[in-house]
Structures are given as structure tokens and as C-alpha cells.
């Protein structure tokens, strides 16, 4: 900018010099040449032309400069118009007032109203806030910038918060000659602060802030805790006034540790009230910045943890814990919202399944499979436009929803997704090649509701697999006549029970404190006569979809009960056997009668049957509560399986007759793989204890996980660290051997070879 200004100055200096030289040249001509000579006239003509050209050049330069100034002014006005801010500039000497257009948005009044009444901005200030004007005026007269915060009343009665930054200008005599004010609407921020402040003040939790070993803030609940009637009786007091003098060095060390590690600490501590009585408090502490200095925030342990847990679980309901992608619930919510008001736009649903993933997962283990899915999720997000929704349906299935699209555009996106998987995925210095098979359905051509669109995209995906995998296919009506693996599995599943293709394997549940087997979980396996071993993750969803889960579930229940009874008859000490129950089974009107009749026919004590249900039963809480209470009256044990992957309202959960909570494997993996280092697991364990539930962690594969769970009082564990699912005869041998799993590191390492039959479910 400085160089440009210098060039402009040089240009005008050159023009001025030219004018002066022309004048001198004219004088010299008049002296040296006769005024009537032809030479004089020729030079006079050239001189006149030079002056005309110079004049034209000057006019052009003036026009260009005027145009540039006008454009700069327009740009400046455009910038002011786009900003959610108003600028008020008042030259007190000339009484010239400049106000930007933004003031109309802030105050809800026209620009002319402010020009007509220069004091209008003061008149609309909320009466209780007008005291700021005196302080503001004093600082401005002293030449000091001042920031004022006050409320205004708009013409429609709405009250808004304004932040007003005033910048004065004084002349050499100290007189106030110019004033500029920048105004922002901070209503949202103030209301958020007020909401937070009211929550803190009205909270039943003890909330306090300490710094320099003194109390800077404490809420009403904290005051009541120590017997004070008002916060000012405590604020400013030394924290050691409320502690045992013997603990001073320990407290100082603890405070330093909190600042050094910059992390949350939870501990039990004894404090003393003003009257000297002692109080046992469970505290959570964390370092913060308070009024510009480092401080520690303290929250007393009470119902707050439940509230936080409920919010965390609610969030889990809409996002996949492993990949962070939206899950099935979020996808359906978003898709149904679009279908409610679709307008004229076309929508595309892409159903994506990873080829060869199950082989990698079974041979390399769930940890590798999980890392692979996380990297797949990142590639999908980078390949899909920002306005597309990438979600994980479960396992290795993903659904992508793209709005406002045509067939050509969705084809380009599908090709881009396939291209994204040309390169291998590297995990722990190993390269893995996975490719996607993609099925596509289009709204409204293929369907007009969420279920149909997903179903048809799924059908098209199976066609993509049949055609060699690693490709995409659009749904068409003739797909209904094609034979696919899905159809073959469905048909085979109907015959599997009759042809004795199904079997149960059993995985031990181990008491972490002692290493003793305290229960087993029955897990179904299917060996197809042509397709070989079929993963439960492949046929169970299909059984759910077709309704075959009900007869399948009855077979599993009876088989598990008979096996447990057989073990007891062989002399084994009785232990409960856990069986997974689907929502479809649970909704069966004859479900409770079937359980009762099965136990009676088999002769199994109900206490040794445990039913694992999912959080999805909360969708019909009234009916679910009745059924659960009936089962509880029978003496059957009840547990919530995969806890945290669905949505459970704690206000309902605490009233249900539940005995156990099973922490889902994805959260157990977080103990060593996720940045939160098991915070969610700790939250679920604490919540389970508060609700008087036994907590089981499933999917344990590492010794570090066992250590963490034991340290955080998790009672029971299950997973490949202890044993893979075993056939009945192998399970019998394991139970008879009375192994202590604390001493079985070599055995556990062997069991981590997941390449053999089965998965961790």
C-alpha cells in the first residue's frame, strides 16, 4: 500500500513539473522568437496541443481516482452490511453522524430514526441498565476506551443484550471532538451464561472454585453442606479452615498434582463444617481458569453423575461408538425427516458392505477389525460430498444418504467410493485390502419410505456381491426374481433346525477378583451343509427381519436350559447360563409362558437362567415392564446386553427389575484404544453400582483391560482373554478343571487366536 501511495505522489509531482516546464517553455518562446514569425506559430500550436493532452490526461486520472474511491466505498459498505455488527461514528465538531446499516438488525428500528434522534440509542436502553451511561461518559471524556454491556428494548418488546465498545478522540487541548462506537448483539451468549449460572446456583450438587488455597466461589448447596447461610461467609476463607490440620501437606500435594497433570481427579475426602462436624464427601476436581488465574473446580458427588451418564448414553443412541459415524437411529431419523418434506429433490440410499472383512476380523481378531472399520469410515467420509450422510449400520455395513441428486451424480460418487479403496489399509505395519459392494436405491423411483429404500439398496448390494464384489448396482424390480446369497441363507435358515445344522457354543463369565467361572453365555453357531460356517452377524439380522428369530430363539432357550441341567446332573456346581433374547421374541405374547413351561419341562431352577435383553425394549416401556416383572417373579435373572449402544432413560431403567448390566465390547476396547481411556466404562460401572446392578464387561481381550476393570470395581468379565466360545464338551472340561484364570496367561494367549471357529459373539 505504501508503494502504491508513493507511485501516486510521484505521478502528481511529474504532472506538476510538466505544467511548470510548459509555462517556462512558453515564456522562452515569446522572448526568443518573433511573435509574428511562422516558427513561433508552429511552436504555439504544439504547445496548445500539449496543454490539451495534459488536460485530458488529468481529467482521466481524476475520473479513475473517483471511480476507485467509489468502488472502495461500495466494498466497505458491503462488508459492513454483511457483518452482524453496527458502527456509530460521530464527529462532534462538525456534528456529522455516520451509522452503518447493521444497527437496523440490532435495534429493530430504521436508520432514519437514529439520524433524526441522536439520543434514541440511549432512550431504548433497559431502565435498570441506564446507570452504565454515567460511567461510560466519564471514561470517554477522559479519553479512555470503554466497553459497556446493557439491554435494549426493541419496538416489538423483545429485550436484547448489546456490547458497546466506545472509542473517543481528544484534540491537542484535551477536548472531546470525535467518538466511534462498535455495537454487537450478545444476547445468545448472555442467555447461555445466565442459564449456566442459574444451573450452578440452583444445582443440588456442591460446586466450588478454589485458587491460592482460598475459596473463590461456592454455590448454595455448598454453603448448606458446611452450615453457612450465605456464600460471603465462606468466600475468601482458607480451604484449610474446613479440613483436618494433619491433612494440609497432603492437600497441597494433591492440588499441585491436579495442576501438573491437568486432568480430572476423583477421590473421597473428609471436610468439616463451621460447627466442627465432619462430612464425608466424594469429590471430582479439575483445573480451570477463573477470572484470569488458575484455579480448581470442585463438584460434590451426587445425582450429577447420573445426569451426565444419561446425557452420554443419549448421545450414544445416535452415533456409533467405534467410528464416530451416525448410527442406524440417526440415519433413520434424518431420512424420515427428508421424506416428510422432500420437495422435488431426488434422494439416493447407498447400502455398502465390505468384502472380505469377516475373514480379516475372524483371523486377525476384533481389535484389528475395529481399527480397520475406523479407517474405512474415514475413507468413506472423504469420498462422499460434505452434504452426504455416512452412517454405520452395524458390523461391516454402512449406509450413505445423499440429497438433491440424479443418477449421473450418484454414479460418480459410487465410483469415487470404489476408487478410495484401491489402496491398501495399513494397520500395525500390515496391509489389508478390503473393497466395498454397493447397492443403490433412488427416491422416489424405487420407494417412498425409509424401510423400502434401505431394503431395496440392500437387495442391490447383494447383486453387487454376486457380480464379483467391488462394484455398485442400482436397484431394479427384476432383482426380486434373482437368487442371492441372502435368499439362500434365508431358505437354509428355515431348514437349519430340522436338519440339525445349528449348535450352541458357550463362553465363560469370570469373576475378576477370583478368576472363578461364575456363569456361561450360550452363543449360536450355524454350519450350513454347502456354505460352511455362517457368521451370526450375517444370519441373525436376517432372522430378525423375516421373523425366524422367534422359533430360532425358542430352540436356543430350550437347548441352553437342557445343557445347563445336564451339566448339573453330571455333578458340576450349578451356575447360571445366559441366553440372548431379541425384541421380536420379547414381543411374543406367549414368551413368558414359554419360559415357564421350558423350565418346568427341563427341571431347571429359574435362578440358573439369565435372559439378556437389549435397550431397545425401552421403546415400549409399559409392556416391557410388565413382562420383566413376570419373569422376575419366576426367579429368572435379567440383564441388559450391549449396554450403552442403544438408548436407556435412567428414569425408567432404575425402576426395572434388572440384575446385571453388560458393557458393550466397543466401550471395553476404548480402555486401551480410545483417547477417553475408559471414561465411558467407568461411568457405566459407577452408574451400575448406584443402581445396585452387577456389572459385566464383555469382549475382554487384553490384560490391561482386566486390570482397569478390576481397579474400577467391575465384578465379572467375559471375552477371548479368558476363553473363546467352546462346544459343550470343551466347556465341560474347562469347568471341571476349575481353572483360575488369574494364572492362565499362556492359556489366554492361546485363546486370543481368533482364527479358529467363531467370533466374540
Query: Which CATH-level-2 architecture of the largest domain?
Result: Alpha-Beta Barrel
Overall tally of domains: 4
Superfamily at the CATH H level of the largest domain? EAL domain
Question: Which class do the helix and strand fractions yield?
Answer: alpha+beta
Task: Give the assembly state of these chains.
Answer: single chain
Total number of helical segments? Answer: 27
What is the CA-atom radius of gyration, in angstroms?
39 Å
List low-pLDDT spans: 742-761
The largest β sheet comes out as: 8 strands, mixed, barrel
Q: Please report which band the strand proportion falls in: under 5%, 5-15%, 15-25%, 25-35%, 35-45% or over 45%.
A: 15-25%
Which word captures the global form?
Answer: extended
Mean pLDDT equals 82
CATH topology of the largest domain: TIM Barrel
Across the major sheet, the strand order is 18-19-21-22-23-24-25-26
InterPro entries: Biofilm_reg_signaling (IPR052155), Diguanyl_cyclase/Pdiesterase (IPR012226), EAL_dom (IPR001633), EAL_sf (IPR035919), GGDEF_dom (IPR000160), Nucleotide_cyclase (IPR029787), PAC (IPR001610), PAS (IPR000014)
Transmembrane segments: 12-33, 45-63
Protein name: Diguanylate cyclase/phosphodiesterase with PAS/PAC sensor(S)
Domain GGDEF: 345-477
